[in-house]
Write a structure and sequence with these properties.
Number of strands: 23
Number of helices: 13
Radius of gyration: 21 Å
Distance between the termini: 18 Å
CATH class of the largest domain: Alpha Beta
CATH superfamily of the largest domain: Enolpyruvate transferase domain
Helix content: 25-40%
Shape: globular
Length: about 425
């Protein structure tokens, strides 16, 4: 399917199931592989990103039994079985960053390749930190970018104490990667943040998954993370939460179409930072109610405009932009300058595609201001960015003539998104 024409919802109440969280899935997979004994990870997301992660672990020699919704992983106690291997991470930022740290802290030598899209995304700060610990990188195209070969710091012997200074202004995945890989060294590891970004909701997810597998993070200072010497992961049964990032598209549908929406299994106590998008919808006039099945969102007769800093749940900036034209006074999104370096320059993606629909907006260094208006028919360019495709499909439920180009890019995190949408429009 090269294009998708958005229809109209055929019901006043929708209830849907979304995949497991990509963020939680890939963290749990890596940690389980580094643990002692057997882990069973269930509720996983089956998408391009997670499939690349699984395939990479298999190529590295880990024993993984695939039972569709559940993976049975035999951990190897912080040691990578194959000392030489070549892996391909596709466009998965989590796989690229997490596995780079894992391989750099090993005693092997590995080549990591990626899609052209991922080759353009930032890696420099993470690589420089790993070089400071003794890892050696050979770059095959551009300096500090994929593809490259990494020789792990364990080849020359780990330092008595490991210390990493890291700037996460471009991606908090750098910090998560260092944290999760650190127990491989069995050395005390201190990670210090040097940048300005304070948004750490995904880092909280990392801490909670690590804790479930038996490793605690010590916070001596606000921007200092300590993993004690001898820390190691233990195999366990782990159930991934539903993906709140995916759930938010359906909550946005409720908001803009004046209906009710429930996403099964998503509750207010979710560890995922994107749950804060519900607070935004509440401020815009939506009614929220906790039910046994999940949070129910009911849209208002008219959405209120809002100004909001989304630095700590920036994956929802595109989702908010998709419903912004239907507000009474418009929307200003701030604190998201780092999303210029994701699958697309997402600030410019918002600016371009809203403009294509005739919506006036102003791009800023760290966000965008969107004025209210009636979107006109348009073919939405998606830049091979799954969140662009899924977000502006929501706009099309309220506006006429919205067509999504390359809807297949959603396979990155939610392969069945448009099948689910079709079912809601019948």
């Amino acid at each position: 399917m090269s294009e998708y024409t958005v229809g109209k919802l055929s019901r006043n109440n929708i209830s849907v199931t979304v995949p497991g969280s990509k963020s939680i899935t890939n963290r749990a997979l890596m940690i389980a592989a580094l643990g002692k004994g057997i882990s069973r990870v269930s509720g996983i997301q089956r998408s391009d990103d997670s499939e690349h992660f699984i395939e990479c672990l298999i190529r590295l020699g880990f024993d993984i039994q695939d039972n569709k919704d559940t993976l049975v992983i035999k951990g190897n106690d912080g040691v990578i079985p194959n000392k030489k291997a070549e892996i391909y991470v596709g466009s998965a930022g989590t796989a690229a960053r997490f596995l780079t740290a894992m391989l750099a802290m090993s005693d092997g030598e590995y080549k990591i390749d990626a899609s052209e899209q991922m080759q353009k995304r930032p890696m420099k700060e993470l690589i420089m930190a790993l070089e400071s610990g003794g890892a050696v990188f050979e770059f095959h195209k551009e300096p500090y970018s994929l593809p490259f070969t990494v020789k792990g710091m364990g080849n020359t012997g780990y330092k008595e104490k490991l210390g990493f200074d890291i700037n996460i202004d471009k991606s908090s995945q750098y910090l998560s990667a260092l944290m999760m890989a650190a127990p491989m060294t069995h050395k005390k590891t201190v990670i210090r943040l040097t940048g300005k970004r304070k948004a750490k909701s995904y880092v909280v997810i990392t801490e909670k998954v690590m804790q479930k597998f038996g490793v605690d993070i010590i916070h001596a200072k606000e921007d200092e993370y300590i993993i004690e010497a001898g820390a190691s992961y233990n195999g366990c049964e782990y159930i991934c939460e539903p993906d709140v990032s995916a759930a938010c598209y359906f909550y946005a549908m409720a908001a803009v179409c004046e209906i009710s929406a429930v996403v099964y299994g998503v509750h207010a106590d979710s560890m995922q930072g994107d749950i804060r998008f519900l607070d935004v919808l509440s401020d815009m006039g939506c009614e929220l109610k906790e039910t046994d099945d999940g949070i129910c969102v009911k849209g208002p007769a008219e959405l209120k405009g809002i100004t909001v800093n989304m630095s700590d749940f920036s994956d929802q900036a595109l989702t908010l932009s998709a419903i912004a034209p239907f507000t009474d006074t418009g929307v200003t999104i701030t604190g998201v300058g780092h999303i210029r370096n994701q699958e697309s320059d997402r600030i410019m993606s918002m600016y371009n595609e809203l403009g294509r629909m005739g919506i006036k907006c102003t791009a800023h260094d760290d966000g965008i201001t969107i004025e209210p208006g009636i979107p006109k028919p348009a073919l939405i360019q998606t830049y091979n960015d799954h969140r662009v495709a899924m977000s502006y499909a929501v706009t099309g439920l309220k506006a006429e003539g919205i067509v999504i180009d390359n809807p297949g890019c959603c396979s990155k995190t939610f392969p069945d998104y448009f099948k689910v949408l079709d079912a809601l429009c019948k």
